[in-house]
Amino acid sequence: MAAADHLIRSPVLTSLTLFTPAGVLPQAAPLRLAAKRLRALGFDVQVDADALARHQRFGGTDEQRLQALHRVATQAPGIALATRGGYGISRLLDGIDWALMARSVEQGTRWVGQSDLTALFLGLLAHTGAGSWAGPLALDTFARETPDEVTVDCFVEAMSGELEAIGFKTEKGFDGLEVRGTLWGGNLTMVCALAATPHWPKKVRRGVLFLEDVNEHPYRVERQLLQLQQAGVLDAQAAVVLGAFTGWKPSPLDRGYNLKSAVDAVRARTKTPILTGLPFGHVPTHVSLPIGRRATLLVDGRNALIGW
Questions:
Q1: I need a labelling partner for 280 at 20 to 30 A (CA). Which of 36, 167, 170, 190 fits?
Q2: Is the model's pTM score more than 0.70?
Q3: Banded model confidence at residue 203, pLDDT cuts 50, 70, 90
Q4: How far is residue 65 from each of residues 102, 112, 134, 216, 304, measured CA to CA in Å?
Q5: What is the mean pLDDT of residues 25-49?
Q6: How would CATH label the architecture of 165-307?
Q7: Is-catalytic flag, 106?
């Protein structure tokens, strides 16, 4: 059996466009493989004309990437799936036609991605109230040697409208917790980068904020969480849910300090419950989450559920 043959399903023919809004794609082959596998899942896949454009470390010049974003929004496919993250969305925020983006959502487009796409999705929420999906990036999931089945299944169910909840194991101490609020968040660095800008979702209060990051040592994670706490963001939430924080290397200076130490330090400074264990982030197995949707977080023992 060839790799990823298990992905083949009955055609649903939902239109899906692959686009590159941030970092450059070094090679074309992974994009072709991702497109092939998405077609095997039943999606009617189109690749944006500038998906392989290159300028320095970016997937094209700022103008090229902005035009690609607006082009996809105008076409309003069923799904607009980013090829990868990296860095680059921040350069585009002031030039994005947010009304055009919102119209695409009204027409049925589900914008999907994570990492650097956090800036786009929270900007969309801030300017228009329109929702999006924190989910896989095309190359990170569909160009892997063996795509993760849980990630793929979750994505397919989310895009078909069948996904209504996700469950995960969390730490002890939150049994009986039940909160409701707007589900929002994404990459911690990008969330912090939006603070005090016009692209920050100021209207979100008593929300369920989910966060993840990669290549950030726990002290940097703590520093950014404290920035959000000191800015009043954490205290204004109904709950905070932490996903994966991966790719960092211990330092000889840590002397026992780790991610748990960082989280405990932040917990000591806010009354908002901070849960861990969400399967989301720069890891092979991760769920898809609807940004901007009203959601409920329930905890029974160590079993947590986020439903919408």
A1: 36
A2: yes
A3: confident
A4: 18, 16, 20, 27, 38
A5: 98
A6: 3-Layer(bba) Sandwich (3.50)
A7: no
Judge whether 282 counts as a catalytic residue. yes
Reduced DSSP (H G I as helix, E B as strand, rest coil) percent helix, strand, coil of the chain, to 5: 35, 25, 45
Domain limits, CATH 3.50.30.60, in the chain:
165-307
Give whole-number Cα distances, 181 to 120, 195, 296, in Å: 21, 20, 7
Find the catalytic residue in 115, 217, 222, 288.
115
Q: Is the pLDDT of residue 6 over 60?
A: no
Catalytic residue among 127, 199, 217, 282: 282
Q: In the chain, where does the domain assigned CATH 3.40.50.10740 lie? A: 5-160
For residue 188 the two structure tokens come to 């911690």
Which tokens in the block code for residue 256?
Answer: 């026992």
Q: Give dist(CA 1, CA 217) in Å, integer.
A: 40
φ, ψ dihedrals at 284, nearest 5°: -60, -40
What does the alpha-carbon distance between residue 173 and residue 175 come to, in Å, rounded to a whole number?
6
pLDDT per residue as tens digits for the range 62-71 = 999 999 999 9
The CATH homologous superfamily to which domain 5-160 belongs is: Murein tetrapeptidase LD-carboxypeptidase, N-terminal domain (3.40.50.10740)
Residue 127 a catalytic site member: no
Confidence of residue 300 (pLDDT cuts 50, 70, 90): very high
In DSSP notation, 139-163 reads HHHHTSSS--HHHHHHHHHHHHT--
Both tokens assigned to 15: 């239109």
Tokens 């849910």 sit on residue: 241
* Residue from 104, 127, 199, 212 carrying the catalytic annotation: 212
